[in-house]
Design the sequence.
């Protein structure tokens, strides 16, 4: 009996990647073993975090690092650290910020979700006052500079395709401007794919997910300036306590870093590309579907397959294709964040051997079924957040009224 059968779960064929809503990373055997071994020991957590700092230094080239409950927790902890420093008395008083610098500056276009939690909520829970500057699609250096004053504790930069429009201040200019005014910069790089870049251009704290492309169990990693990282670690005496990470999470991050360092990347990427080429070749020639192999900044894969759907020819929209995939058994999930714009991607990283065949069979079947139908009417599709909310609300139906059985 496998784990799906044991706990009554529906299998997911994951062509999306380490999405939190899909349980995040598929953790490799060596990392799983390290986590299992960690659960059987007692350890001083201060010592464990100090050893983790050494591993995070190797991975990020930052001065120091620590591990917290998740990346969202890491943002809140980083904000708190920039307000309190290492003052334990003030750490214990948050969210009371009387007498503290408490303004946190952010470009309005960067006020998006950290996962599905809004960035402003992560700041407000610390007592911080989020200062949104400029317009949703445009921001200037002079507006950033005007926002700084004696109450400015930090500035936040969000690394996300949804926050990096052409009107936003580029990261290097943002960081250099903040540093010229003595303002620490916190970077949310949830995927962890750009952490070294942000450290190199001067970010004071970079927060990323352990359970994303690093391939650890659920955890958040904070890397950056030693004194600020120390202040982040001390937040476990205050608001960081309910966000703390266990020994297994810290050792999981350390083991995942070791795996990353020792991985045969040529072989790893060659196996990915074999699946990519198989998918592209199988799906080529479907009427109304443009098939492209590309490399994405949102994935550590060697490449993925992007499908652009012309509904007038394919007789189905990209959004509807993904809706149908999501109700199959196994459930099939793609990188569908832009499906309302007419395209989505198939990422091979978490496809087990043979699942690329199942994926292609499912897609070919959907397009064949609709090819003889009518051109779909143009309808307004729900936002991604509305889709997530609908999925979350389905808990009641899935959980059932078992307590009365």
Sequence:
């Amino acid at each position: 009996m496998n784990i799906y059968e044991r706990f009554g779960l529906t299998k997911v064929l994951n062509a999306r990647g380490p999405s939190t809503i899909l349980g995040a990373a598929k953790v490799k055997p060596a990392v799983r073993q390290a986590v299992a071994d960690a659960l059987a020991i007692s350890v001083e957590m201060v010592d464990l975090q100090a050893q983790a700092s050494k591993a995070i230094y190797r991975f990020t080239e930052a001065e120091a690092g620590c591990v917290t409950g998740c990346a969202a927790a890491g943002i809140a902890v980083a904000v708190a650290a920039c307000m309190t420093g290492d003052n334990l008395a003030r750490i214990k008083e948050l969210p009371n910020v009387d007498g503290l610098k408490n303004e946190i500056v952010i470009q309005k276009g960067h006020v998006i979700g950290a996962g599905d939690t809004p960035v402003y909520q992560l700041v407000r829970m610390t007592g911080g006052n989020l200062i949104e500057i400029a317009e949703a699609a445009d921001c200037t250096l002079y507006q950033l500079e005007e926002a700084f004053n004696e109450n400015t504790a930090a500035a936040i930069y969000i690394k996300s395709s949804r926050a990096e429009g052409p009107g936003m201040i580029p990261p290097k200019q943002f960081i250099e401007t903040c540093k010229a005014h003595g303002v620490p910069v916190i970077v949310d790089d949830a995927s962890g794919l750009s952490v070294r870049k942000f450290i190199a251009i001067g970010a004071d704290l970079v927060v990323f997910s352990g359970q994303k492309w690093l391939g650890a169990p659920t955890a958040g990693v904070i890397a950056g300036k030693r004194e600020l990282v120390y202040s982040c670690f001390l937040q476990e005496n205050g608001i960081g306590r309910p966000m703390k990470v266990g020994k297994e999470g810290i050792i999981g991050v350390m083991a995942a870093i070791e795996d990353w360092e020792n991985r045969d990347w040529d072989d790893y990427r060659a196996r990915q590309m074999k699946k990519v080429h198989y998918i592209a070749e199988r799906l080529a020639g479907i009427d109304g579907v443009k098939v492209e192999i590309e490399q994405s900044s949102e994935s550590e894969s060697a490449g993925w397959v992007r499908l652009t759907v012309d509904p007038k020819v394919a007789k189905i929209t990209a959004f509807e294709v993904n809706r149908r995939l999501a109700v199959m058994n196994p459930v099939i999930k793609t990188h569908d964040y832009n499906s309302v714009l007419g395209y989505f991607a198939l990422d091979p990283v978490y496809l087990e051997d043979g699942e690329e065949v199942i994926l292609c069979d499912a897609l070919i079947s959907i397009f064949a079924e609709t090819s003889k139908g009518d051109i779909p009417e143009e309808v307004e599709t729900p936002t991604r957040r509305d889709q997530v909310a609908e999925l979350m609300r389905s808990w009641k139906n899935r959980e059932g009224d078992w307590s009365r059985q």
User: Anything to note?
Assistant: The longest strand covers residues 152-158. The domain at 3-9+265-395 is CATH 3.90.1150.180 (Aspartate Aminotransferase, domain 1). The radius of gyration is 23 Å. The mean pLDDT is 93.
